């Protein structure tokens, strides 16, 4: 049939045409990215152990002065940042392992929240480093 009312519909074919029935969904995460995520997880675990030791040592076994309080706060922020990286890499690996495309929006929401938290923690870490530097300069004067 030809439809003469609309020129764009002149090649109209009756019936149902499914354009997506022969497509395969592949995971978008490469093997190299999985290996990088595993290495980042290992480094994050080592950093978590080191920062927890610093927090325990400076928090409970050393006399508190302003410098040790700054370093303890910096270690806590670094611990939170490494924990966030660990969770992010775990999300990457779990997404690539299960390859579920119905959870992409949840994964992207988690990545967005992780990026915002990462920026907040990074800014706080820089503020503590600035405070430590100012305190050391004032101690010298």
From TrEMBL:
The keyword Cell membrane applies. Keywords: Cell membrane, G-protein coupled receptor, Membrane, Receptor, Transducer, Transmembrane, Transmembrane helix. The chain crosses the membrane at residues 35-62, 74-98, 104-123. One of its GO terms (cellular component) is plasma membrane. GO terms for molecular function: G protein-coupled receptor activity. InterPro entries: GPCR_Rhodpsn, MRGPCRFAMILY. It is found in: Cell membrane. It is a multi-pass membrane protein. The keyword Transmembrane applies. This is MRGRD protein. It comes from Psilopogon haemacephalus. The lineage of its organism: Eukaryota, Metazoa, Chordata, Craniata, Vertebrata.
């Amino acid at each position: 049939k030809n439809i003469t009312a609309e020129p764009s519909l002149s090649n109209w074919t009756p019936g149902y045409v499914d354009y997506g029935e022969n497509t395969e969904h592949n995971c978008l995460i490469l093997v190299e990215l999985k290996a990088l995520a595993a290495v980042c997880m290992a480094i994050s675990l080592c950093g978590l152990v080191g920062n927890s030791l610093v927090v325990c040592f400076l928090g409970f076994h050393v006399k508190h002065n302003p410098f040790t309080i700054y370093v303890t706060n910096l270690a806590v922020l670094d611990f939170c940042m490494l924990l966030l990286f660990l969770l992010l890499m775990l999300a990457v690996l779990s997404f690539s392992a299960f390859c579920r495309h119905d959870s992409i929006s949840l994964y992207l929401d988690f990545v967005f929240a992780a990026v915002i938290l990462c920026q907040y923690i990074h800014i706080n870490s820089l503020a503590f480093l600035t405070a430590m530097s100012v305190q050391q300069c004032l101690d010298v004067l």
